[in-house]
Structure formats: C-alpha cells, structure tokens
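hey can u check if this looks right to u? its 259 residues, i copy pasted from the old doc so theres a chance i mangled smth
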Amino acid sequence: MKTFFKIGSCICLLFATQITNAQLLKRVQKRVENKVEQKVEQKAMEEAEKAADKMLDNVLGNKKKNDKKVANNSDLFTFNQSITLEIQTDDTEKAQLDFLFDSKNTEVICMKLASGDDDADGEVYTVITPTSSTMFMNMPGMKIKKKVSSEEMGNLDYSDKVPQKSDLVKTGKTKKILGYTCHEYFYENEGGKVHVWVTNNFPITQKFVPILGMKQNGPIEGFVLELVYKTTNESGAIKVVKLNTSTNVKIDASAYKSM
C-alpha cells in the first residue's frame, strides 16, 4: 500500500495552484484590456444586427424563432450545496477555500477561486470530475474556459494515498463540528499519523471530495469534517467551517470560449 502521508505535499500544491491561477488571471486580464476596442465594436455590430432582425419581424409580421442557445445537459453544471474549508499547513496563515456540490450528481464538484478583492472583478470556478478539470473564468466582458492539467490542480486526488478500510481505527472519541457529531478515525505508519473526524448525518452526501481524502467506494463512510495530519517534516489541518445548503450557482459551459 502506498504511503498515505504525502497529503502535506498535496496541500502545498493546492496553494501553488492558487498562485498559478492568479498568474493565469493576470495574463487573461491583460488580453482583455488589449481587446477592449475590438469587443466594443463587436458588441455594437451584434446590437445592430438584433435591431435589424427585430425591425424585419415587425414589418413582415412574422414571429422570429428564438435563437437563444439552450445548453445541453452535459454543458450545464448546477450546484446547490457548498462548504468552506479552512486550510493550514505548518505555521502558515489559515486560508479558506469553497467547494460546491450538486445533490443530484455525485461525480462532479466545483472549487471556487478568488479572482480579486470582490466579485466585481469576476468569478472563477474549477469544475472537477474523476477524469477531468476545467476552469471557468467569468470576467467583465469575457467568458473563458480552460482545461486544467493534474499538475495545475495540484494532484488533489488522494486515491493512492488513502489507507485500506481495515487500517483505519475508530477511537471511540466524538466531538461536535458545525453542530454535527463526528467520530474520530486514526491511522499511523512509519511516515506519520492522521486523525479524521467523520459524521454520518451530514446534509451533503457527496463521496467524491479528494481534498478531504474522500472518493467513490472509498474506505471512509460518511462525510469528513476535519482532517489533521503530522509527519516528520510537516503538519497541517483541513476543517469544514461553513455549510450552505441553499447555494445557487449555474455554469453553462457552452457560453464560455476555450483558451
């Protein structure tokens, strides 16, 4: 069995991912600035065409077909639940990261990234499935999508690092996190040790949450609300600090241009 305690490296890669995403956003923003005039002209042409179409409809007395593009099911992602994770490694400052879920689709999650000091600078989401990751950047005047490699994502899949179910020891200890009773599971080997706090009555039933060590048909039964690890070289913790069961985020992939 492969050693579980590479988690610290994965967390560090997650922070590296945020830096990579920030650099990418700067490059994209520069491209947006360079294309402002082109965008304005294109918008003006589109509005002129719409006005002409409307005039023809009124003159001819015919009802024009609605050409508004309807997204295929495979192009539309809907998320109605979310959690906020608080992440800390070694002595670094705590950072927060939002993950979104679709209660009807257990094979897709979404990571929300900060694009600036406020939402006015745009929204950046990374939709993650077991086989692919795509970043969606909704910035003023432009919508762009980009396939994200496993290296850019920081290899968030811990499938080869999670121990077998028989290796997890239920300690009998419990504690409340966000009002939910969590049971502690413990694992230790020569590389270090990990404490996992799991609840069985969480509103989100998603099993695929790689950053929390959760995967489909994995050894952890329930939802992980806290993971604390310590190795000979580093230590860290990931904890769910907020739950939202009325999230409303929709991403129409067909409305974004590929980079």
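The first strand starts at residue 76 and ends at 79.
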